[in-house]
Design brief:
This protein is of the alpha+beta class and about 70 residues long. It is built from three helices and four strands.
């Protein structure tokens, strides 16, 4: 099983290869990585958080003022 994280995205060939039946590869792009980081930040060890200082910033979503949506800044 392989895990590839890329902040620059993946080529169509790489995505196709990862979707191939029997391929045991997971591709995570920048947006998915940040989403995972936000959702699981409390469980990430402190030394790892210190190396990648992403701080969730909450704001009102103009499309739905009753909801609050997270973004990250570093």
């Amino acid at each position: 099983t392989g895990l590839f994280i890329s902040t620059g995205g993946f080529t169509p060939d790489a995505r196709r290869e990862a979707r191939r039946p029997g391929a045991r590869v997971r591709l995570i792009d920048r947006d998915e990585f940040i989403d995972l980081w936000i959702r699981h930040q409390e469980r990430v060890p402190e030394d790892a958080r210190a190396r990648l200082r992403l701080v969730p910033v909450w704001f009102l979503d103009p499309a739905s003022p009753a909801l609050v949506a997270p973004v990250c800044r570093h």
